[in-house]
Structure formats: C-alpha cells, structure tokens
Amino acid sequence: MNTPAPAQRGLSLRRQLLLWLLLPQLVLFLVGGALAYRIALNYAEKAIDQSLTQSVRSLARQVKPIGSGLLVDFPKAAQDIIEQDPKDRVSYMVSSPPGLFLLGNGKLPAPNNVPDIQPNTPLLYNARIDHKPMRVALLEVDYGEDKSPQRLRVQVAQSLAVQERLTTELIADMLMPLLLLGAVLSMLVYGGISRGLQPLTRLQAQLGDRHHQALSDVSPIELTQAPQEVHALAAALNQLLTTVRRSLSQEKRFLNDAAHQLRTPLAGLISQTELALGESDPAALRERLTKVLSGAKRSAHLVHQLLSLARHEVEVKLQPLDVAALAREVAREWTPRALKIGVDLGFEGADHLQVEGEPLLLREALSNLIDNALTYAGTGCEVTLSVQSRDEQVLLEVADNGPGLADEDLPHVFERFWRASALPGGCGLGLAIVAEIALRHAGQARVIGNLPHGLRVQLWLPASVVLV
Asked: What EC number(s) has UniProt assigned to this enzyme (predicted)?
C-alpha cells in the first residue's frame, strides 16, 4: 500500500512578503552605498586636484629667473606649514632642468609614459612614495634667454589619506540617514504586512470556529472590512459551502425519500413472499408470486425515479442542440407503446429549433411527460407532443384529452410523491423530475387544463438559452 507523501510546507505568506519587499531594499541600499562611495571618491579627488594645482602654481611663482639663474623665494615658515601634518603630508620638489634636484623632496618621481609635457600646463598623476599612495601635480615653466632657453619643473605631492578621509566622512554623512530611513521603512513594511494579513487571520479564525459544526449547519463567512482579494476568497468559500450544503441536503432528502417510499413496498414484498412460502395450492402460489413481481417492478421503478431525481439535482453543462429533432425522436420511441394501449400519439411544431440544453435530461423530461400522459389519459385518447417558439421562448408541451385534473389539484402536480390517481405503477416522481430538469435549464414547468377536458404540461426554456 502506497502512502501519499506528506505535503511540503513552504515559507509563510508573511515571510515571503517580507523577503520580497526587504531584500530588494537591501540590494538597493548596497548598490546605492557603492555608487555613493564612488561619487564621494570622485569629488574628493577633484578637491585634492584643485588644491594641488593651486599649490604648484603658487610654488612656481616663488621661483624667479635672474638672468641665467634662479631665485627661490620660499620662506622656511611656508615650508614648515606644508610639511607639518604627517598624516596629510604635502611634499614638493623643484628641479632644473627637469629631474635635476634643486629644492624640496628629492624622492618625487616623474610621471610615466608622458613623453612630451606642455609648459605652463599642470599635469596630475598618481605615484607611490615610501610605499604610500600620493597624488602629484607637476608644472614646467620655461625661463632664460632666447639663445639659451631652460626649463624649470615644480612638483607638489599630497598623500591620498586625505582623500580616503574625505570619502569616509561623505559616506558617513550620506549613508547614516539612509540607514536610519531604511530601518524605519523596514518597520513600516513589517507593520503594513501584519495589518494587511489581519483579514486572512480573521478568515482563518472564522473557519476554525466552524470545524466543530456540521457541514449542513455551517453559516456563511462574513468579513466587514477586508481587501477586495480577501472578499473574493471569502465569496469563493461561501459558494463552496453553499454547494456542499446543497449537496448534503440533496443527499439527506434522497435518503429520507428512499427510506420513506421503499419501506411500504419492501414490507409488502416480504409479506407476500412469506404467504407464498406457506401456499400449497399452485394457483394461489402463482397469484402470490404475481403480486411479488408487481411489487418488485414498482420498487425498481421507484428506485430508478429516485436516482434520476437525485442525479438531476446537480449542476448540468448546457450545449447547443436541436430540441425539435430531439422531441420527434422521443415521440417515435414511445409510438409502439401508444399503439399497444390504443392511444393516438402525435407530434407537431417547428422542424428545427436550437436551444442550449442537456440532451439526456431533456430526453428524460419529455419521456416522463409522454409516459404520464399515456398512463393516465386512457385508451382511445389523443396525446400530442409539440415544440414551438413563443415570445422568444421555447415551449415543449405534452397535451392529452383524457380526464384531466381538478383545479384544486393542479398546484400539487409537481410535488414529490403526490398522486391524484390510484392506478398502480406510479410513484409521484415523474413530474417532479420534469420540474427539476426545467430548473437546471433556467426554465419553468407549468400545468394547465386542456379544454374541454384533459391536461397540458409545459416545459418553458427562457430566452437567455435560445440561440435562434
């Protein structure tokens, strides 16, 4: 015996919502932090480059050419100011010709892969001095006489520690408020999800309160304040509960009807069988067995009608069909029995008439109407099955000119187990089945007297199901 695998439980709806709402927020925060760091680094680099450019121009102005020589007017106090901060060290170097040390820090390297340096145009590049990253600004100036031109190179370098410090400060100033806002937003998201799931919690509580009730007594779910989706879910559940209650009610009614109606014929069968067992006379035994057979046939007919009634009380799927052709076919099927009992069975009406219906149910409804008319109209009577279109509706009618019914009996014709005749064989369910089939087709069953005498039983299909 194979046992079904247990259902795997996934993440709760609350956790899934938190995951899909907070995870993108975290990703955006990380991406935003990386972009902010890059932007802050760029701005810090621009600030350092601007400061170095100003410094290298100022230092170049302190070197004044005198004839073929140079006068460096760089006070010791200015040099101390430049070099006083070891963490944000600023180094300088003056060389002439370029690369031949004159003044400052002789460790400042020349730029790589720059074959031609334009005079009077600052050049900015990165270098490493004592294994530390530095930003260097370089400016070359021409001096001397036309016959003997010379060039002066001035370099100013600053540690990139200041760039990192500025970047860190900018990132801290930018991301801390964003981090706080993200925390507040996460709390709001969690609270919003919790509040949004409250209708589902109430729905679960209402369903939990109903688990001890019988399905036939379960009341509809009521949600006064809930989102549209939860209302739709509650409506679907109410529809399901209504279907279950109707099914249980039909089942209960079927069992009650079957128990009530089968009790008498079964008791009669038992009684007749017991009497037959005690008979020694063949004629009397045959009479008893004939009654047993008659009771068995009546019980079989009753069971068939009960099952048919129970089957017709469920929802049916309608489809296009030619009801006129169906009615002619049913009339032909009942013609042999009509001829046998001396009843004139005829058909009249449209050649073709399209409706939306269920062929088996409509066939059984017409068969019940014809069977009822043949049984109670009497020998020598006329029974007519007609199909016609009237007031944009389809009318199926079985009329007979038999004895008919009294006016006070007409309202009871479609009631279950109601019979106006004492003739054997019937169980009072045929016309009840016709009424149920009419309801399943969104139609209506009616009965009227047939002047001067007789009965007309009608099956109306509404205009909403008519195709032509």
From this structure: 2.7.13.3
**Overall pTM > 0.90:** no
User: Is the link from the previous residue into 119 a cis peptide, with omega within 30 of 0?
Assistant: no
Say what the pLDDT of residue 465 is: 43
CA atoms of 297 and 212, how far apart (whole Å): 44
pLDDT single digits (tens) 127-162: 888 788 888 999 988 877 667 778 888 888 888 877
- 330 φ/ψ angles, rounded to the nearest 5 degrees: -65, -40
Burial of 78 (0-12, 13-18, 19+ CB in 10 A): middle
- Cα→Cα distances 300→258, 289, 294, 296, 297, Å: 12, 16, 10, 6, 5
Q: Is 391 left (phi over 0), alpha (psi -120 to 50) or beta?
A: left
143: enclosing H helix or E strand: strand 132-144
DSSP alpha helix (H) spans, 62-98: 76-83
Q: What three-state secondary structure class fits 57? A: helix
- Name residue, tokens 């989102």: 227
Please name each of the domains of the chain with its CATH number. Answer: 18-168 (3.30.450), 228-306 (1.10.287.130), 318-465 (3.30.565.10)
Residue 84 has pLDDT above 60, yes or no: no
CA dist 210 and 227 (Å) reads 22
